[in-house]
C-alpha cells in the first residue's frame, strides 16, 4: 500500500514540523506534497531544505487560493492510491500511517481517521483525550487533521472552495454518497493547542471541557505512541 501525504501551510516557521512529521513515519511507501499558501514564503528555502528528499515535493500557490483549493491541488498531484492529510502544527507519531493503512485493510471504509484524539495544551502542559468513546468504529465524522481517504473518491468528492469547514464538507459529501468512515484508536496522533491562541479558532476552555483523563506532562510523545 502506498500513500501520499499532503500538507498545506501558510506558516514558514512550521517547516521543520511539517517535514519531521513525514520523515519519522516508519511506513516506507510514501510521498509528501507540501503546498505553500503564502506569497511571503520563500519557496527556495523549502526546496533547499528538502533537496535530498526524493519523496518530498514543494509547490507554491497564490495567497488568495483557498485552503480547499490548495488541498484539491495537492490531491490532484498525489501519485498513490491513498491520500493522508497532515496539518502543519500537530504531531504524528512514527506508526501513524501504519495504523491508518491497516484500518483500510481490515474494514470496507473509504475514509479513515480519528474521532477520539489526544489533545495537548501547550501553555498548561495538559494532555487529555477529546471526545472519548469513538475508537475503532464506523462514524460520520473524524478530525480533519487525521483524514485519510482513497484517492479514487476524487474529484467526484472534493474539498470546497472555502477556507474553513472544508474537511467537514468533504465528509458530508462522502456520507451522502454512501461512503463509510472508520475511526481508528486514539494513539499515534496529538492535536497540539499552541500557546499562541491566535493560531486557533476555538477557545481552549471549550476543548478542555470535552476532554477526559487530563494529566500534566512534558513528554506526551511517549504516552501517545503505539507500535503497530
UniProtKB/TrEMBL annotation:
GO MF annotation, one: glycosyltransferase activity
Short name of one Pfam family: Glycos_transf_2
Listed InterPro entries: Glyco_trans_2-like (IPR001173), Glycosyltransf_2 (IPR050834), Nucleotide-diphossugar_trans (IPR029044)
Residue ranges of domain Glycosyltransferase 2-like in the record: 5-136
Gene3D superfamilies xref list: Spore Coat Polysaccharide Biosynthesis Protein SpsA, Chain A (3.90.550.10)
Record keywords, A-Z: Glycosyltransferase, Transferase
Family as reported in the entry's similarity comment: Belongs to the glycosyltransferase 2 family.
Protein name per UniProt: Glycosyl transferase family 2
Organism: Salipaludibacillus keqinensis
Amino acid at each position: 500500500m502506498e500513500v501520499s501525504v499532503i500538507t498545506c501551510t501558510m506558516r514558514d516557521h512550521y517547516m521543520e514540523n511539517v517535514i519531521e512529521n513525514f520523515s519519522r513515519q516508519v511506513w516506507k511507501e510514501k510521498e509528501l506534497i507540501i503546498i505553500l499558501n503564502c506569497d511571503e514564503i520563500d519557496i527556495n528555502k523549502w526546496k533547499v531544505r528538502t533537496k535530498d528528499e526524493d519523496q518530498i515535493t514543494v509547490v507554491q500557490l497564490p495567497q488568495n487560493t483557498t485552503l480547499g483549493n490548495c488541498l484539491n491541488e495537492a490531491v490532484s498531484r498525489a501519485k498513490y492510491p491513498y491520500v493522508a492529510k497532515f496539518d502543519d502544527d500537530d504531531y504524528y507519531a512514527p506508526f501513524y500511517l501504519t495504523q491508518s493503512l491497516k484500518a483500510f485493510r481490515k474494514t470496507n471504509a473509504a475514509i479513515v481517521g480519528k474521532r477520539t484524539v489526544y489533545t495537548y495544551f501547550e501553555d498548561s502542559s495538559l494532555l487529555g483525550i477529546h471526545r472519548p468513546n469513538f475508537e475503532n468504529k464506523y462514524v460520520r465524522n473524524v478530525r480533519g487533521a487525521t483524514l485519510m481517504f482513497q484517492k479514487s473518491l476524487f474529484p467526484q468528492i472534493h474539498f470546497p472552495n472555502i477556507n474553513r469547514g472544508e474537511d467537514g464538507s468533504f465528509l458530508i459529501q462522502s456520507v451522502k454518497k454512501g461512503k463509510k468512515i472508520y475511526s481508528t484508536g486514539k494513539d499515534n496522533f496529538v492535536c497540539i493547542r499552541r500557546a499562541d491562541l491566535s493560531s486557533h479558532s476555538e477557545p481552549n476552555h471549550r476543548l478542555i471541557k470535552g476532554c477526559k483523563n487530563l494529566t500534566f506532562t512534558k513528554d506526551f510523545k511517549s504516552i501517545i505512541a503505539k507500535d503497530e
